[in-house]
Design brief:
PAS_fold, Transcriptional regulator with PAS, ATPase and Fis domain, 39% helix, alpha/beta, 5-stranded parallel sheet, single chain, elongated, ATP-binding, nucleotide-binding
Length: 695
């Protein structure tokens, strides 16, 4: 057999080290290689020659970009790992416990790496102090230890232990042999003797060679992919190797595996099928003791002879996690939910009730439909639901269904294949449902979907399947859907705009968010939060605060935040009503168009705006106040609550207080301080009389 000599280029930090490593390679590989050495310290690396393999010291370059400047892209490279000889370690082991010594090397980085390596090899009884060129020389040391860098040892040191140059580690030698296809050399006594002469804290190569001399070409797999479980069999399908990860995944005892037939020890892995076909088996699933396991088997073929095979196994959940990380990298976006239920501000009963319902729904996997006016915090609730669910470690993806054209929305949600339409990205694109696998997708303004897309969404919910635009392959996804709408989907279903079957699928777990005008003191609570956010130092006058409490807040929390930001920039200590922007006043100053469809007084129209769907509760409170007025009495919250209870109406103390505050803000009643109760005035009587006749 004719063997072509291979060219090896050795690169290290300084000339001494590079030449030392080069000589080691020559001693081991002899006439099979042609070598050259370069070093970074004096710049000879700039004139580097072409080679079949580049062997590079880990401390030669500061960064990967520096390395890429000198080594041609795509060329094979082996990083030099170094260790000490057994003799050097034996000398250090003879030193007494607690010995203090300098450790001298070329740089601080090299010193610390060398000390760490000694610790890994069991030298933990010596207290080393780093010493290197350029540092402040430590004094008072009688002993120095150095890997052949005696010239940098301080002059006042009495004794020097020279460990000699660190030698190539066994992993480096094996990798060089494998890269150059000289793996047959590893069976020779020269290499065995070398491996015995060096200190090692990892696998014993002597033992590995003894198990199967014909499987040296696969040892690098055992060394480099230990994140996965590995089981190796010989040509007769007897197990000769099994790492701890594999034993942990499969729940098996390693001592009961080695030298056992694979068909008996691990019957769930089809080594025999691989032996007969001599083909790689990729990505199969099997369930072991209730856990889904993903495995692949790679045969080892030398010439035309089957030498055995290796199986890599991992828990399917771990593989899915890797896939998710890759998807996120491809998407180049975080897609993480930021908010939790503690971030939802409010003490009113209506918001506490909504949070309580949503927290219970978070524990399930069913679809959630969040309804409420624009600006009430639907996405905030969606993120909180996701972060309180079992899916919180997976993506949260939000998309507004009404914000983009129908065809663009379809390609974003479901992805597309290469050439699906003009302008499609080469290679196609994954859809958001695929990116959201195992996580949550939030479909805001879901009513904006076309009927065609509604059908595709229905299939995702029912079958857990998507198909890319222009594709013909079904892709299984596990995604929880949280939908949101500003409109009444009941009305859209009745008018035929929204599919009834989709509505009932989405509305499995409904959450209704209250508008800001129904949240009482939450208005001022949110006001203070936003004022702090914008660094405002102003206060509201009594009239301005009443205006805030009685404002219709058609834009809800988003509108409130915008007004607070505006006021923060006015640079005033006290905000009066006239300081509020025109848009604020225009919301309550144009009663021309009646919300009820009937003409009425300005106060009646304003009460209608504020009361919303709770008009009956407002009228009941006014009725209680009116009855008390007839009796020449004032009335408190407790009395109103008792009257409500006797009439079969549920009104809490908090809700009654909110209503009384709103009525006081409209100047329809007067709230007395302390236990004085509340009293309706002439304007309130007039409004009550007017509205009682209409409602």
């Amino acid at each position: 057999m004719v063997i072509i000599k291979k060219r090896i280029t050795v690169i290290a930090w300084d000339k001494v080290a590079s030449k030392f490593y080069e000589n080691q390679i020559i001693d081991l590989f002899g006439e099979l290689v042609v070598t050259s050495s370069y070093h970074v310290r004096n710049g000879s690396v700039k004139d580097i020659a072409d080679a079949d393999l580049y062997v590079v010291s880990t401390d030669a370059f500061e960064s990967m970009s520096d390395l890429q400047r000198y080594i041609p892209q795509g060329r094979p490279m082996v990083e030099i790992e170094v260790t000490y000889t057994r003799k050097a370690i034996e000398v250090l082991l003879e030193l007494p416990e607690g010995t203090e010594a300098l450790f001298v090397n070329l740089s601080e980085k090299m010193v610390r790496e060398a000390i760490t390596r000694l610790s890994q090899l069991g030298i933990n009884h010596i207290k080393f102090t780093p010493c290197f060129p350029g540092c402040i020389p430590p004094s008072g040391f009688k002993l120095a230890v150095t890997p052949d860098e005696c010239r940098y040892v301080p002059e006042d040191v009495e004794k020097i232990i020279n460990l000699g140059q660190r030698v190539l580690a066994s992993t480096t030698v094996v990798e060089i042999a494998l890269r150059l296809r000289f793996d047959f050399l590893l069976e020779r006594e020269q290499f065995r003797s070398y491996f015995r002469s060096i200190a090692a804290n990892n696998y014993s190569f002597d033992q590995l060679f003894g198990r199967s001399l014909r499987l040296e070409s696969q040892f690098e797999i055992l060394l480099n992919i230990m994140d996965d479980g590995i089981i190796g069999v010989d040509e007769n399908s007897y197990i000769f190797a099994c790492n701890p990860k594999a034993c942990d995944i499969a729940g098996i005892n390693p001592e009961s595996l080695v030298n056992q037939p694979a068909s008996e020890a691990v019957p769930f892995i089809p080594f025999e099928e691989c032996r007969k076909s001599r083909k790689k088996i990729e990505n199969r699933l099997v369930r072991i003791k209730g856990v889904d396991i993903n495995y692949s088997i790679s045969p080892v073929i030398r010439g035309s002879e089957y030498m055995g095979s290796f199986a890599t196994i991992q828990r399917f959940t771990e593989e899915e996690t890797k896939q998710h990380n890759l998807r996120i990298q491809l998407l180049n976006k975080g897609h993480k939910a930021k908010y939790e239920f503690d971030d939802i501000i409010g003490n009113s009963e209506v918001i506490i009730r909504s949070k309580s319902i949503a927290e219970k729904m978070a524990k399930t996997n069913s679809s959630v439909l969040i309804t409420g006016e624009s600006g009430t915090g639907k996405e905030l609730f969606a993120q909180a639901i996701h972060n309180s669910s079992a899916r919180k470690e997976y993506p949260f993806i939000a998309i507004n269904c009404a914000a983009m054209p129908d065809n663009l929305l379809e390609s974003e949600l479901f992805g597309y294949e290469d050439g699906a339409f003009t302008g499609a990205r080469k290679g196609g694109k994954l859809g958001l449902f695929e990116f959201a696998h195992k996580g949550t997708i939030f479909l805001d303004e879901v009513e904006g979907m076309s009927p065609a897309l509604q059908i595709k969404l229905l299939r995702v919910i029912q079958e857990g399947e998507v198909m890319r635009v222009g594709g013909n392959k079904i892709i299984t996804v596990d995604v929880r859907i949280i939908a949101a709408s500003n409109e009444s989907l009941d009305d859209l279903v009745a008018s035929g705009i929204f599919r009834k079957d989709l509505y009932y699928r989405l509305n499995t777990l409904p959450v209704q968010l209250p508008p800001l005008r129904e949240r009482g003191d939450d208005i001022m609570l949110l006001f203070h939060v936003f004022r702090k956010e914008f660094g405002g130092r102003f206060e509201l006058s009594n009239n301005a605060e009443k205006a805030f409490m009685t404002h219709s807040w058609n834009g809800n929390i988003r509108e409130l935040r915008n007004y607070v930001e505006y006021l923060a920039y006015l640079d005033k200590n006290v905000i009066e009503c006239e300081d509020l922007p025109q848009s604020f006043h225009s919301c309550i100053s144009r009663p021309a168009k009646s919300l009820s469809g009937n003409s009425g007084s300005y106060e009646s129209e304003l009460l209608l705006r504020i009361a919303g769907n709770r008009l009956d509760d407002y009228l009941f409170v006014l009725e209680c106040l009116n009855e008390a007025y007839v009796k020449h009495e004032t009335i408190g919250r407790n009395s109103i609550a008792e009257m409500a209870d006797s009439n079969g109406i549920y009104l809490s103390q908090q809700e009654i207080r909110d209503i009384l505050n709103k009525l006081d803000g409209l100047s329809l009643i007067k709230i007395s301080k302390g236990r004085g109760g509340s009293k309706i005035n002439s304007k309130g009587i007039s409004v009550f009389s007017e509205m009682r006749t209409k409602y």
